[in-house]
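A protein record pairs a chain with a discrete description of its three-dimensional fold. The shape at a given residue is found from the number at the same position. Here is what such a record looks like in full:
>
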Amino acid sequence: MNTNTENSIREKIGLFNPITLDEMDAVKLMRRIDSKFVFSIDKLPEILEAAKEKYLMVEIENFREQIYETVYYDTPDYEMYTSHHNGKLNRHKVRIRKYIYSDQEFLEVKKKNNRGETIKTRIGRHDDIKIINSKKNADFLNRYTPFNPEDLQPKLANRFIRLTLVNKNFSERITLDYNIQFEDLEEGTEIKRNGICIAEVKRSRDDRNTDFINLLTMLRINPMGFSKYCMGLAMLNQNIKGNLFKQRIRKIQKQTV
């Protein structure tokens, strides 16, 4: 991202009325429909300018640009990755996510069911949060996934900046992720993708069209699936199946600076 774009993003961020993390509790949307869009970071200032009247921006400890760090877990043979790559429904992701400015950390399970819904469940920080097969974590994973916790291994880490928007009737949440870095925890390789922004529109099943989706449509930005776990691995690990992600990777590479 060049300096002009970075400055313009920060200028537009300041135009939004804020909402606190507690106030956002009304729009957690732990069971939801997700739509993802990937576009050049250079378009983000224009999108923020157009969205400022209808959306609030989450602010935590006086920061609106939130830093997220994530570690994804999978089986030794990448069963969760493969299920996503092959388009299998009723699939899972297991991760530990740290929210830097709010000083929160969760073990999270995301399930994509056969109705296209994303269902997220999580438990908060405790002394052994990073020990995936501790009793508390194992009980949680046994309840919400079909995997043996003892088989799960850390596979991929990422770090990114997130902006979160909430519409004024509290029925929709938008996340905008950029300055994304990936690290393959087995290979020790890293990659940055600073030229893209990933927008995710999270809403209830009944809200098919939203102001934000209409805005992106007007700008000719079309939906594109993007799992940070799967795309990060596909870009870094040449030993796993990735042919169905190649077209998306090429699009991302064209927008990377």
In short: The first helix runs from residue 3 to 13. The chain has seven helices and ten strands. The first strand starts at residue 18 and ends at 19.
